[in-house]
Structures are given as structure tokens and as C-alpha cells.
Amino acid sequence: MEAKHTPGPFKVEVVQGWGIGLSITAPSWPEPIATVHDHKDVFYRHKRKMSEDGSTVTTFDPPTVEGEERARMWRDVKEANARLFAAAPQTAAERDRLREINRELLEALEESQWGGFDRRSGKPCCPMCGGNREAGHSRHCIVGNSIAKAKGL
User: Fold this and answer.
1) Among 1, 22, 62, 99, which residue's CB has the most CB atoms within a 10 Å radius?
2) Number of structural domains the chain divides into
3) Domain end point (choices 57, 86, 115)
4) pLDDT (tens digit, 9 = 90+) per residue, 94-149?
5) Are residues 124 and 63 in the same domain?
6) 81 and 36, same structural domain?
7) Which 3-state string (H, E, C) describes the chain?
8) Are 134 and 82 part of one and the same domain?
9) Whole-model pTM?
């Protein structure tokens, strides 16, 4: 069974909530596909310490200049991640287009691989290495190696 994904195009939208998040949405889907949130340590630095009764207490330092720089960095990372995710349908479409081009180029290369003519034997041969259908390409032939690589051999 082939997995299906929500058809694009996707877009990134800012959402307000517990902090500011970025949602990736698609017109073909009724709710956000994904939401990118701030990292938990963006604004505050957590400190854990033991209280007198032996329990652990978590305290939060207020935002500092360092915290603001960290927040800017995480905001940039969050936005970049959201844009990358939103570009997935276009990336998949481009991948499929390039696969088709590769298939066409491989087909053309296979058709032309014996397009040369060996004067001694009078048989078709590879225009690059002089190999024929029976003997195959020489091991250094760019045509034979390209075909093998494109076929995953």
C-alpha cells in the first residue's frame, strides 16, 4: 500500500497561542498539517535545585540579553524548518519531474550505445569504447558506466 500525503501547495501561517507557533496548512485539508513551536528554553533558563524537604524545585530565570539572542536564533530555526516543510509538495513534484527526465535520458543513452560502426567486424559498436553487444563495453567506458549507474547496477 502506497502512503499518500496531503496535496499541496502548503503555506506557513503564524498562530497565536501559548507562545507563537507556525502552522503549515493546505487548502485541501481542514486543519493544520503540522505546527512548529518554540523550543522550551527559548525565553527562560531552567534551574533545578533541591528544596529543604528533598523535593526538586524548578525555577525560571527571567529573560536576559542572552535569552533574547537565543530566542531570535530559535525563531529563525523555527521559521526555516516551517518553510522547509511547506516546500515538501514542490520538492516532491520536482523530484518526480527529474526522475522522468532521467528515465528519458537513460532510454536515449541505451538506444544510442551501439550507434558506432566497427569497420573491422562490420558490426555496430559503442562510439566511445568500441565495444560491441556480445563483448559489452570496456570497464572504463563512460557510456556503459553511465547506464549501469542510472540502473543502480
Assistant:
1) 22
2) 2
3) 86
4) 999 999 999 999 999 888 898 888 888 888 999 889 888 888 889 899 989 999 88
5) no
6) yes
7) CCCCCCCCCCEEEEEEECEEEEEEECCCCCCCCEEECCCCCCCCCEEEEECCCCCEEEEECCCCHHHHHHHHHHHHHHHHHHHHHHCHHHHHHHHHHHHHHHHHHHHHHHHHCCCEEECCCCEEECCCCCCCCCCCCCCCCHHHHHHHHHCCC
8) no
9) 0.56
